[in-house]
Every structure is written in structure tokens, then in C-alpha cells.
Amino acid sequence: MKQARSALPRLFAGRVSMARFVAHQVIVFVTLLLVAIQLVTLVALNWAVSENARESVRKEVEVGRRIFARVMEDRTQQLTTAASVLASDFGLRQALMSSDHATIVSALNNHAARIRAAKMMLIGLDRKVLGETAAGGNGEHTLFPYPRLIEDAERKGAASAIVLIEHAPFQLVVVPVLAPVPVAWVMVAFSVDTKLAKDLGLLTGLDVSFATWVRDRGWNVAATTLPTPATRTLLGALGPPAGTTAPPVAANLLGADFQLASSVLGREDDGAVVAILQSSLRDAVARFDALRVILLVLAAFSLCATVAGSLLIARSISRPVSALAEFARRMERGDYDHGPPETRSDELGELAASFNRMRLAIAAREQQIKSMALQDALTGLPNRALFNERLQQALGIARRLAQPVSVLLIDLNRFKEVNDTLGHHVGDRLLCEVADRLRMVLERASDTPARLGGDEFAVLLPAASATMAEAAARKILLTFAAPVVVEGRQLDVSGSIGIATFPEHGDDPNVLMSRADAAMYVAKRKRLGYARYDASYDTETENHGRLSLTGELRQAIARNELVLYYQPRLDLASGEITGVEALVRWQHPERGFVPPDQFIPFAEQTGCIRDITQWVIGRAFEQGARWRAAGLALAVSINLSARDLLGPELPRRFAELLASHGASPHWFLLEITESAIVDDPVRALETVTRLHEMGFSLSIDDFGTGYSSLAQLKRLPVAELKIDKSFVMDMARDPDDMTIVRSVIDLAHNMGLSVVAEGVETDEVRELLYDMGCDYLQGYHICKPLPAEQLEGWLARGAAQHCNKGEIT
Amino acid sequence: MCTRSLKMPARYRRSVSAGVGGGVLAALLALLLAAPDATAGEIRAAVRDRDGKPVADAVVVAVPAAGTASASHPGVAEEDQRNKEFVPHVLPVQAGTRVSFPNNDNIRHHVYSFSPAKTFELPLYSGTPASPVLFDKPGVIVLGCNIHDWMVGYIYVSESPHFAKTGADGKATLGGLPGGDYTLRVWHPQLEGGEQATARQLAVPSSGAVDAATTIGLVPDFRARRAPTPGRGGY
Questions:
Q1: In a mutagenesis test of the A interface, which of B86, B90, B114 is the best target, namely the one with the most A β-carbons within 10 Å?
Q2: Residues 203-232 of B with CB under 8 A from A
Q3: Which end of chain B has a smaller Cβ tally under 10 Å, C or N?
Q4: Quick check: A390 pLDDT over 60?
Q5: Is the preceding peptide bond at A735 cis, omega within 30 degrees of 0?
Q6: Looking at residues A723-734, what average pLDDT do you find?
Q7: Interchain contact, A176 vs B145, CB within 8 Å
Q8: A240 shares contact with chain B (CB less than 8 Å)
């Protein structure tokens, strides 16, 4: 119980594991594929985004740099213009030319305020400062500190530069005071401050910083749009204060995260002003963050959808597959009763349908095989195997319940003849009829009829005493009494039934069967119909039944127990013995003489007849050759069986013997029965024709007993007919027989055949045959079969006597 | 003689030399009138720039070493404003000359000077102002117009009565000079360096001419651009 419980989940797991495995494979594959695709996409997108951002930032900075340059240029122009306009102001000029320092300074202050200049300065043509804003009024004329600007202005009419004044950056514009020729210079200074940086930042879209460098003080960020931490970073990147000249600002100053452009706005010996335009790559990349998030969400969604979808699909595949697998397992166990669980319209449904067809086909075939194994194919009755099984079972039950069990063994009488003469199909129909009758006559369901083989049937009667078995046997024989009609022919069915009963006749199935067999033999031999086994039967069956053993017969050939006898035949025309028929005899070492009709039919059934024929032919040739050598011109007739005619061996054997004995085919006559031709006419005819071509004369033996047609006879290359002795023996008393004999003789002669009459036992018959014109006679009246040496003696003694007798009669 | 030409009525000059600079006319007159006065010496001055090109509008002044005769009376002169230009561009006058500034344009001008030699202002006016301006201090007075930045005129106030202005050929003749030693100076609006640098001693014979060639350096003219005039497409 515990085991069963633990086995159940395992069974369940095993059942689903295969399908799960497929499903998992599908899911894992699809998922991995999707993830790989998405990874590639994301990586590619990331790369494209950062590349794009880098490029766009680079462009932005480049554009910003141009805008910056242009704006600075424009601003310079504007400041210059503004300064020029200011310097042209008549009032200012008047004030400046007044030579009154206080006036000059106040005018400068006033006008500087007008254009929002940080400083303003009046410089004489001699470059001495004549006055300046926000300066003490000491009136001392110092030299203008930026002489280059004046030089520039002299050349161009105006000049501008960005310089450091007390470490702060200013844009200076120098324009002349025209009256109307230059009479002085006015310098206007505009601070480079955060406002400017912001304006420029707005225009360029970049962060704009104005960095100053002063010798020994280093870098300072004078104005910037950057937030304080970024300013600190920039300042940190710009480096320490060391150096005597302004260091250049490297493009990668802030590392890969920033793109920057720098422009040196002013440079002096001990100071410089540098504009730094920068844009953060990270900010540019961050612009794509939303896109990235959307993509990630999409990827996650599609992954989920794919996994869910493939789960569904995999399950929709794996479930029916599991069901089919379960179905196949059921079939494996031999359960063919249930079809596949569900029907679908797709390929799996088709597979299920195929499985179902397979199931039905296997079931049908198994049924067929089973029945073939246990049933007789022809009659549909249980075969010997099933019968034995049932018998075993019945005996088992009988032993427990102390019940009797009876066995009937039925053998059909003369079935062999029916088969031989009318053909197997008739025999088969007969057997079927017998089977049907057996089935009908047995009332109890437990009674089992069976066909053991050939014309041998058996009936198992469980819980039936010997007396009850006898009653059953009687009933069976009664049902056999009605003739069987096959193809319009009425066939008489008769059988011999042997009865053996458990426990009195034996308690073993084999013993029971053999005893039933013995009883059956007795019944058959004594024509009792049925016989109950008796211990005395054992010896009798020994004597008769056991002769049929093939091995013994074969041994007989090997041990040379067979003997050839020769029966002379009389040529009525010459009155001489012109031929003999070789007849085989068995001199059994224990049983003594065994007549041919006790072993020849059996030899024919088992095929042993071929060996016998071989032996006979050999002996007959030897004897024939010996007689010829001795001057005895005796034609030796040899009997061939139906089986001998079915193969090519026989003509070959004859050819060998002819060669080895230097014999002529005319020394021999080959006798075949009608039935030999009937069994397999094509092959038999072939062999017969072959023998005829070799020069042998052929004779139809036992003519009139078979069913051969005249048409067949016409085709056969035979030279003579031998009228069966059954017609000849009683012909003197039976006018029918006489008519038949006469007709056969006439027929034969009309067909150009000679006629031999067998079974001539009386002088009367001999006379009649002589009158009828029969060609040859054979029978006890002439001479019984004799061994060769006796025959030779007989010939020497009384041949003439017989001959004369014939002549006289 | 220059002085004489300066005395010529403006109306007359206007009739004979419309569109021609007054300075050029004066020079021509000086040449024409030089021959009859045979008793006085004269200086035939020629001014060239460093490229050897004749320099026009250069003022050549001869200062007698003996001092200036006070007998001479400076007269009046005119500095026209015509077509938004001062005409003549350079007007040499002897100290004490009164110069009137007739406005021949149909717009107003505002003539001024911040020059130390004479600072004055003629606020917006048209026609001829009531009173001429007296230039009594030697020196150069740069004239401007407060309305038109490009208008530049020069009045050279000479302490000596002997001066002349070069013409287009760069030549000027100072005639009627009593013989003696003179200091010859050349001034030009674009003169490089000071006027004193051009000073040279020169002996002038009582009769006859002496040549005085002077080479001066010029600096580029520094003038405001002329505003475009509507309908004329130029300055």
C-alpha cells in the first residue's frame, strides 16, 4: 500500500515529464531567442544612442562654438558702434576737449552709465590717460596700459580686446574721439560677467564659462552658466596655478563625458581669458532615457507575452501528446479497448486518429494470431494446443472437485480416400461439416470439441463419467449418420471414437489421450463405432497401431528388412510369362511378415514411400538386369506412388540406373494409380511425360477405382491399363463387374492400349478374360508373388504349363 | 599773390570757378600775378610725398628770419560748406584773418572746432552767419560739422604773411618776398610728424626765384565715412 502510494506520483511525474520536457524546450528556446534578440537590439540601440548623442553633442558644441564666435564678433561690433556713437556725442566731445579733468571724469561717468559700460577712459593721442571713470582725480596722466589697442584703433578706426583688469575679464573697446579728426581715444570697458555668459549660454545652448588665468594665481572661473559643483569640477580640471604662460585648454579636459570647445579671448604676458563652451554627453544620452525605458518595458512585455504564449502552445501540444503517450502505454499493456482520449482537427488529431487505426489493426491482428495459435484455421474449432490446455484445466478442476473428465478421440473412417480421390477442397468441406455437427451435438458450454489434425477430432467432456461419454459418443455417431453433401456429391461420414475417462483410465492428459487413441483404434479395427478404453487394448494397439512409426519403416529400409516379390503376368496372346510385377514385402524381425496394405498407405502419407520406391527401383533394376543377363526376357513392372511423380528426382534416378546397369527402358513397366495423377495433375503429368520420353512404358494401375476422367487418361502417355482386381475377382458372378471389365477392355483397345487384369483367381475368370480379348492376366490363379529365386524355379518348372493352360482355354 | 586772392570777392570767385576749390584758384592767381612784381624774390616750392607723388593741399609757409612785418593787414576769408564738404579743404590764412562760413547747402550745418588755436562753434545755421570768426592765433584749426561727421576742413593760421597752398601738381609759389633768410615749413593735414620737422632755412634773393623741394611723409587720412545721400547712391 505504501509502495503503491509512493509509486503513484512517480508514475504521474513520468507521464508528464516527457511532455513537460518538450514544453520546457519550446519555452526555453523561444525565451532565449527573444532575450538574445532583445539584448542585441538594446546593445545596438545603446550604441546608436550614445553614438548619436556623442555626434549630436559634438555638432552642438561645434555649432555653439561658431555661434559664440559670431556673437562675440557681433557684440564687439555693437560695443564698438556704441562706443563710437558715444564718442561722437558733441556734449561728450565738448566735455572731453574742455581739458578740465573733473569735467572729463564726470562726463565719462555719465556716458559710461549710458551704455552700461563698466569703465570708460579718455586717452590722449599721446596715449596718456586723460581721465577715467571711477578713478581718483589726481590728474596725473599715466600711460594707457594697452598700447596695442591704440595701435589697432589707429589702423582700423576702432579696436577691441578682452583683457584682465585687476584679474577680472573685461572687453575693452577703443574708439577715436573725432573732432572730426581723431583728437583723443576713448576706451570703454564692458565686464565679461555671468550675464554675458548666460546670454551666450542661451544663444549657443551650451554651458559657457569665462576662465581667467593669471600668472602665479592660476585659473579662475570668472563667469559661468554652470552650477557650482560643475564649476568646481571645471576649475579642478583646469589645473593648478603653476606655469608662466597660459596653458592650452585640452578638448578632453573634462573627460569623455563632456564635449567642450575653448576659445582664447585674450592673451597677455601674464594673463589670459578663455571661453569654455561645454555640453554634457550624459545629458544628451539622458534625452534618450525615456526611449530606453519604453524599449525595456516593451521588451519585458514581449518576453512575458512570449513565455505565456509558448507555455500555452507547448501545453496545447504536450497535453495531447501526454494523452497519446498514455494511450500508447495502454496499448503496450494490451489494452485495446479504449481509443485515444480526444479528437482534434490538427496534426495531433491526425496522429491520434492514426494511433486509433493502429490500435484497431493491432487488436485485430492479435486476435487473429491468438486464434491462429489456439484455433484450427479450417474449422474454427480449438486446436490441439488449446484442447490440451483445456484438458489440463479440466483435470485440475476435476481433481479438486473429485469429478470425472472424459475425452473422446474421433477419427474419420476412409477420410484419406475422400481427400485423395475428390480433392482437398472436398475433404476440407467434409471436415468443416464434421466440426459443425460436433458443435451442434455438444450441449454443454464446457464441452470442448477440437480438431487435433487431419481427420482426427477430440471432445473434452468435463464432469462426465465414462457412461456419459459413451452417450455423447453415440450422439456424435448419430449425427454422422446423415450423409454430407459436397458439390452435389453425397458422402458418407463415419467415425471411430475412443473414450478415456479420468480418473479410472489415467490422471495425466497424455495418458488419457493415448488411451483414448488406443480405444479409438480398437473401435476402428473392430468397426465398433466407439469403444471405451480397456487395459487389454494396449497390446492390440501395439501390434497394429505402432507399425505406422516412420522411424521403424526407415530402419526397415536401412536394415534391409524389405524384400521384393515378383508376381508373374501371363501374355494371353503368346501364353508365356513375359513380365512380372515387383511387389514390396516387409519381413519384420519381430512381427514377422507385414502385409503391404499395413505399411504402404502409411508410407504414402508420411512421404516414406519415396525411400521405399527408391529401394524398389534399385532392386528391380538389379533383378531385371540379372534376368536379362541370364536370358530371361521378363519385363519388370514397378509401382510408383503419387509422391514419386511430384519431383524431378525420379527420372534422374531412372537415368542413373539405366546407365549403371546398361539396361534398356523396355525391360521395365512403370505403374501409376489414377489418384497419383489427380492430386497434382500438372507436375505428375510432367514427370510421366518425361519418363515416357525416356522410353519407359507406363501403365495405369487399379483402373476403375479412382475418379480419373477419360480426358485425363487421353492426355497420359500410357501404354496399358490394369483393371482393378475388385472388378475382376467377382466378375464371373457379378454381371456389373463383367460389364465394366468388358467395357474397359474395349475402351482400352479402342484407345490403342493393352489391358492387364489383376486378381485373376479362378479359371472361369481366366476364360472370360481370354474371351474378352484381355491382353495380360495377373493373379493367384497364375501365380502368387514369389521371391526372385522361387520365381525362377517356378518359371523353369511350370511356365509352359500355365501357358498351355491359357492356350487351351 | 595769395593774400590778394583772398581779398577777392566771394561772388566773383563763385562766378568764375564754380565747383573748383578756392585754394586751386588762389594758386593759379598767384602764378599769374607773379611775373609783374620783379623787385621781390619768390620761392617756388614743390611738395612731394615719399613716393615722389606731388602732394596737393600742402601749406608752405615762409617765416622771415628778421621777423614778421606788422604792416600787413590780414583780410577776410571764406570757408564754404558745399555739398556737405568744407570748401576749400585746406584754407591757409594769416593770423588775424576773419573767416566767414557761408552755408551753400540747403541743409543746416553745425560747424565747430575743438582745436586749441581756435575753439568755436557755429550752431545749426543756414546761409551765412552774421559775423565771421576771427582766427588770431597761429595754428591749425580742424573744422568739423556736428551733423556730418565726415566733413573735415582745415584752417591753417599762419603767423607769417608768406604762405601758399600747393596745387594738384604739388607746387606752390610764394612771391613778393623781400630778400633774406627764411624758414620754410610745410604743413599738410596728413603730415607725418610735426610741422616743425619740415622747417628748413632758405635764402631768398631780392629778385628772382628760389626752388624749394620738400618731401613729406603722409599718414593715412582718418575721416568718418560719408553718409549715403538719398537718391544719389554714393557719398
A1: B114
A2: 222-224
A3: C
A4: yes
A5: no
A6: 86
A7: no
A8: no
Bond prior to B230 in cis (omega within 30° of 0): no
| pLDDT over 80 (residue A707) | no
Q: How high is the pLDDT of residue B14?
A: 37
Measured between CA atoms, the residue of chain A closest to residue B222 is: A181
Closest to B114 (Cβ–Cβ): which among A88, A157, A179?
A179
- The domains of chain B, with CATH numbers, are 1-66+166-214 (2.60.40.1120), 75-160 (2.60.40.420)
SS (H, E, C) A59-98: HHHHHHHHHHHHHHHHHHHHHHHHHHHHHHCHHHHHHHCC
Residues A737 and A658 occupy one common structural domain: yes
CA distance B232 to A206: 46
Within 10 A of B34 (CB to CB), how many other CB atoms are there? Answer: 18
Same domain (yes/no): A514, A591: no
The helix-helix angle for A596-606 and A609-629 (nearest 10°) equals: 120
The grid cell for A13 is 511525474
* Same domain for A503 and A478: yes
Tell me: the pLDDT tens digits for A225-279?
A: 988 888 888 888 887 666 666 677 777 777 777 888 888 888 887 888 888 888 8
Q: Would you call A183 an interface residue with chain B, using a CB distance cutoff of 8 Å? A: yes
Q: Do B142 and A183 touch (CB under 8 A)?
A: yes
pLDDT in tens, B169-212: 999 998 888 888 899 999 999 898 888 888 889 888 888 888 98
Chain A residues near residue B224 by CB distance under 8 angstroms:
178, 180
Mutation test of the interface with chain B: which of A99, A104, A152, A178, choosing the one with the most B Cβ atoms within 10 A?
A: A178
Is residue A206 situated within a structural domain? yes
Q: By 3-state DSSP, what share of chain B in percent is helix, strand and coil, each rounded to 5?
A: 15, 40, 45
Q: Closest CB to B151: pick one of A94, A176, A180.
A: A180
- Residue A337, CA distances (Å) to A162, A327, A333, A549 in order: 105, 11, 11, 48
> Which domain-ending residue is among A530, A546, A562?
A546
CB contact under 8 A, A94 and B114: yes
Cα B220 from chain centre:
19
**A470-501: per-residue pLDDT in tens?**
999 999 998 888 888 887 778 888 889 999 99
Q: Are strands B41-49 and B208-216 parallel, antiparallel or unpaired?
A: parallel
Tens of pLDDT, residue by residue over A289-303, are 888 888 889 888 988
Which residues of chain B does A88 touch, with a Cβ-Cβ cutoff of 8 Å?
149
Whether residues A517 and A576 share a domain: the answer is no
Q: Does residue A540 share a domain with residue A574? A: no
- Residue in B110, B114, B150 closest to A183 by CB: B114
Choose between A198 and A606: higher pLDDT. Answer: A198
Whether A155 is in a domain gets the answer no
Nearest-CA residue of chain B relative to A156?
Answer: B222
Closest chain A residue to B221, measured at CA: A181
pLDDT in tens, A404-442: 999 999 988 878 777 777 888 888 888 999 999 998 888
Q: Which of A26-35, A540-549, B55-64 has the highest mean pLDDT?
A: B55-64
- Nearest Cα of chain B lies from the Cα of A136 at a distance, in angstroms, of 26
How many angstroms separate the CA of residue B235 from the nearest CA in chain A? 17
**What is the mean predicted confidence (pLDDT) over A8-14?**
45
Measured in degrees and rounded to the nearest 5, phi and psi for residue A775 equal -85, -45
Q: Are residues A503 and A460 in the same domain?
A: yes
Domain with A535 in it: 375-546
Q: Which residues of A touch B143 (CB under 8 A)?
A: 180
Q: Nearest to residue A638, comparing CAs of A597, A697, A570, A695?
A: A697
Q: Distance from A155 to chain B by nearest Cα, in Å?
A: 9
The 10s digit of each residue's pLDDT in A109-156 is: 888 888 888 888 888 888 888 888 875 555 567 888 888 888 888 888
User: Nearest-CA neighbor of A645 among A615, A594, A589, A604?
Assistant: A604
> CB distance B222–A181 less than 8 Å?
yes
Q: Is residue A719 part of a domain?
A: yes
CATH code for the domain in which residue A418 is found:
3.30.70.270
pTM over 0.90: no
ipTM: 0.72
Considering the domain boundaries, does residue A95 fall inside one?
no
Does the beta-carbon distance from A180 to B119 stay under 8 Å?
no
